[in-house]
Amino acid sequence: MRHGQTLFNVLHKNQGVCDSPLTKQGIADAKKVHKYFHQNNIKFDYAYTSTQERAVDTLELVTDQPYQRLKGLKEWNFGLLEGENRRLNPPFNPKIGSVGDGYVQYGGDSADVVQDRMVRTLTKIMIQKNHHRVLVVGHGASTYLFLKNWVPLDELLNHIEMRNCAILKFSFDDETKKFTYLKTINVN
């Protein structure tokens, strides 16, 4: 799932490796997800989160179970554009579904590097013993790039909305080591 709304989300600022606190709305939405999981008797074998505060805070509002922080789940590094208004971002290329290497010139990561990291990290989580139902709290851009690896670009761009606190449901095939996107649940 994606973390709750933050101050930088409201201000339309980039927050990749930098961080900003959850807003009152972000906290309320995370509590709605907690209630959704409880009402639907959804329990997890394991829980993981990015090391970044906004994701950790969201996970702690969503569940009280033990969890592990993983650097591999961190958000995209936007380099010198961290904390800057999103209007300064490199142009989005709809043909490739991202800005590609646009942040590299500012000292950030390429889309391919983030996508590879996310796929590797989430696969490593799922191949562990007894990891049948897993909660992972992460970030918008890095999760989008993970989705981009498994979902056709047209479907991703035109049919998947990932708001703050969105729950993205996947299945995982142990034999092929492939994820299948099932649906997005927005409780806010």
Task: Please explain how this structure is put together.
- The chain is of the alpha/beta class.
- It has a single domain, classed as Phosphoglycerate mutase-like (Rossmann fold, 3-Layer(aba) Sandwich).
- Helices cover 35% and strands 14% of the residues.
- The chain contains six helices and five strands.
- The protein has helices at residues 7-11, 24-39, 53-62, 111-126, 140-150, 153-159, and strands spanning 46-50, 68-70, 134-137, 167-173, 178-185.
- The chain has a three-stranded parallel β-sheet with strand order 2-1-3, covered by helices on one side. A two-stranded antiparallel sheet has the order 4-5.
- A hairpin with a 4-residue loop joins strand 4 (167-173) and strand 5.
- Helix 2 runs parallel beside helix 3 (53-62).
- The radius of gyration is 16 Å and the shape is globular.
- The protein starts with 6 loop residues before the first helix and ends with a strand.
- The relative contact order is 0.19.
- The model has no long low-confidence stretch (mean pLDDT 97).
Give the SSE layout:
Blueprint: H1 7-11, H2 24-39, E1 46-50, H3 53-62, E2 68-70, H4 111-126, E3 134-137, H5 140-150, H6 153-159, E4 167-173, E5 178-185
Parallel strand pairs: 1-2, 1-3
Antiparallel strand pairs: 4-5
